[in-house]
Amino acid sequence: MKIPLTLKKLFRRRIVLAAGICLLVVVLVALLANVITGYDPNETAVRERLSVPTASHLMGTDELGRDLFARIAFGGRYSLTIAALTAFGAIVFGTLFGLLAGFFRRLDAPIMRVVDAMMSLPDILLAIALVAILGPSMLNVVLALVLVYSPRVARVVRASTLVVRELLFVEAARAVGVSTGRILWRHILPNLMSPILVQASFIFAYAILAEAALSFLGVGVPPEIPTWGTMVAGSQQYAHEALWIVLFPGLAIILTALSLQLLGDGVRDLLDPRLKKSL
Amino acid sequence: MNSPITSSNDPSTADTASTVSITPRLDVRHLSTFFDTDEGLIRSVADVSFSIRPGKTTALVGESGSGKSVTSLTLMRLLSRTAATQVSGQALFTNRAGETLDLLALPEPAMRRIRGNEIAMIFQEPMTSLNPVFTVGEQIAESVRLHMGLDRSAALAHAQRMLELVEIPAAAQRLHEYPHQLSGGMRQRVMIALAMACNPTLLIADEPTTALDVTIQAQILELMRRLQAETGMSILFITHNLGVVAHHADDVAVMYAGRIVESAPVRELFALPRHPYTQGLLACLPAQQRKRELAAGEVGAKRRLYAIRGQVSSPLAPPPGCAFEPRCDHALAACREAMPALESAGPHRSARCILVRETATVPALPVETA
């Protein structure tokens, strides 16, 4: 009863609806990859290499004759999983440390100096170093990206916590006898949901791109796992003779990232009670 | 130790408490609050003593920065630990069971059980004192669940009863609304409902009507008065509005620069203010001015409304003697030497002025001509 109404409000804006549908399609294609594609993503057919999109190969084939649509569909599973795990991990750690730094003044300096140090390193460089140390695997890529993106979340969450903790309702909650832990969890955290959600949608999108970049540079997931990033990376030298090889995985990355950001915007507007009226 | 009178919440028995022998609900003794700032140690509240009788209202009056709110926050122990505060003195609170506890010495968990349960608080700003992301019902229910151990649905039902108690129309519907959907007056009613939810024995109201317009102010005050009559709770009323004090308080303590300069039962204070600052405050009221003009037979004379000259001295550089001396029309040389003690000025009242000792009354104020 309550959820459909919320969703109705969320999708009242057409652009958000479009983003939602787009994302739903991407997720469904990834989930149903083995049903809707007739090919194994790693099955090579050298005679059909660099085939233009046809009825049997909807998006054409790559330099080894692998079906691009199958690779994008199966690759979606890996790309989306990496991005989702990264966003989740970065939000959990970033929010935890941001909340603590923002609320307890004594923890502020120690936590934020570490955050500053991590942020002073270029993202990709830090991720490359971490994957190089940990070894290339999907889990290690996620771990490296979580470490790269947590400090950003921590910064945003700390800044918002500093504002919210001074609001009168926090004092009012204290005056009602609410404990510090409960104030943090029940009173401050929900007020931070909109910046956190915006960060989550950004990080989700960034993580798809960062995984692509890592794979492109050869320190991402192992090449036998088809991710959108490895596909662009592996095929870019054939782009001049077969544009679709990089076009379709690139489009998948762009569409997914864009949809996520639009959806994140919509959710933020919905969660902000002050904007509820205008929606 | 459980005397039937102190443990009772019945207003009729509380009435007999006007004699001094009854244990006060709250007895504050020599309360001082210091803030350690970069500019030095600031004494925000200095040696404040007052008491609140069961079922009665004590008003703490003073201008901005006189230490009223710091006093209330100190009593609730809500000053943040990071603000580097130092507190001394005693605040003896008698709870429902008749036990007397020192609020300033209680461990934090025990204090948490008192906050919102035995002692509740209403704030000045109803617009920001409710959490914007929860419905008002959830916020009232939180306090109820915390202190009365009710489950979610029982707590929400209790919250609805509380909203009905504070005369919010369509309470069942309002329960599920967010603070931004309510007007300022409605939000203050919700705050009162939240404060009253666990049937407190002491309500601290820190300028509860300052942010509201006058008609809503009257309604809110009437509501608080009705709730007090029904529950027998005591109220610590913090305000700078003397009109409100005259109508709603039983006892008054006037604060100036962190100190109590005069305390008295409300009628006596308004009839015969003893401290020059209190006299000045009362003289600032237009109605008092009119009364003086009538008495002098100068009806309709155009006179400028009286104002206390000068401004409050900085807490960083307090005057050597009486804090009010630089602004006082009756200042003597002796005023500059030492802070006068709070001296008895009749039964149940006292004033911090050397003139109180020397003469029965301080000379009446001159009315300035425009």
Task: List the topology elements.
The complex is a heterodimer of chains A (279) and B (370).
Chain A: H1 2-10, H2 14-31, H3 33-36, H4 68-103, H5 105-120, H6 123-134, H7 138-165, H8 168-175, H9 180-188, H10 193-216, H11 228-235, H12 244-271, H13 273-276
Chain B: H1 11-15, E1 26-37, E2 40-52, E3 57-61, H2 68-76, E4 85-94, E5 100-102, H3 108-114, E6 119-122, H4 136-148, H5 152-165, H6 171-174, H7 184-196, E7 202-206, H8 214-231, E8 234-239, H9 242-248, E9 251-256, E10 259-265, H10 266-271, H11 276-283, H12 286-295, E11 343-344, E12 350-351, H13 354-358
Parallel strand pairs in B: 3-8, 3-9, 6-7, 7-8
Antiparallel strand pairs in B: 1-2, 1-4, 4-5, 9-10, 10-12, 11-12
Structure description:
Chain A has 279 residues and is mostly helical. Helices cover 73% and strands 0% of the residues of chain A. Chain A is built from 13 helices and no strands. The longest helix of chain A has 36 residues, at 68-103. Chain B contains 13 helices and 12 strands. In chain B, the strands form 2 sheets. Chain B has an 8-stranded mixed β-sheet, with helices on both faces. In chain B, strands 2-1-4-5 form a 4-stranded antiparallel β-sheet. In chain B, strand 1 and strand 2 form a beta hairpin. In chain B, helix 4 packs across helix 5, helix 4 runs parallel beside helix 7 (184-196) and helix 7 (184-196) runs parallel beside helix 8. Classes of the chains: A mainly alpha (279), B alpha/beta (370). The A-B interface holds A 105-106, 167-169, 171-179, 186-187, 190-191, 193, 271, 273-274, 276-277 and B 76, 78, 82, 112-117, 120-121, 123, 125, 128-134, 142-143, 146-147, 178-180, 191, 194.
